[in-house]
Amino acid sequence: MLQYTLRRLFLGLLTALLVSIIVFVILRIAPGDVVDVILGGEDAFYSQETEELLREQLGLNKPLYEQYFIFMFDFVRLDWGESLVDSKPIWPQIQQKLPITLQLAIMTVSLAVLFGIPVGVIMALRQDSSLDYFLRIVSLGGLSIPSFWTGTMIILIGTLYFNWSPRLEYVSPFEDPRGNFIMFLWPALATGWVSQATKARMMRSTMLEVLRQDYIRTAHAKGLRYMVVVYRHAMKNALLPVVTIIGITVALTVGGSVIMETIFLLPGMGSFLVYSLSRWDYPAVQTLVLFFAGWIVVTNLLVDLSYGWLDPRVRYD
Q: In angstroms, rounded to a whole number, what is the distance separating the alpha carbons of residues 256 and 262?
């Protein structure tokens, strides 16, 4: 298992390295320049000497490979630098915004698991019934409708028919727990609907497959109660593929936070990334993308290692 873990860590580091190179290159070749942002925009008037002097101060006049190595060297040393636009240190801003993104991710995954797994079990136990068809339609809607559209419709319907709109300022859970919960509930529901749909359909498929196994029939023949057979014997084995989906959900909440935090005005990591991109703030964008990549790599590793705990038949060679 140790060799497997080290091998996966090496592949994860290689993935993060490739992501850093791709993001670094895309930021440099895409239209736009942080120098224009600092000097007042593309339509602002400034001399060539002023532009060159600013590039030299920001270190943007160095060769690209040298800029990349400097960034990676500082990143590995946990020196994540400052914003090129406002000169604010990046790490304190991440510390401030990370709890917001984590809260949204935890609520999203919790809602998806709490609704997705029971719904999948119910669909399997009531296969081809009216309830099964209804829940499958609801799940299909979650898979078909993008979360950003759902979030937009929540705001639109709330504004037009219920005189409600998201709060414009962030509310700490320590100051107003109820207001904070409501503030995060709607974006979590919009993203969680998509996530619970995948879990429900996967749980239904795996439960139907497990319920047809010989050992399930043997458990029934031994006189065990129906619900004991379902929850103690069938669900644990059926959960193994669903764990992969849950891990993917944890990883996808990073990408979903970029959209949901922007729509619902949550000042988390996702909105910080969008704001940094709009200003071509190279260090902030590169740091945030690498941070997200590390999040996804670690999540996938933990999911893979959890297989051995859920299924003793799994061996790491």
A: 10
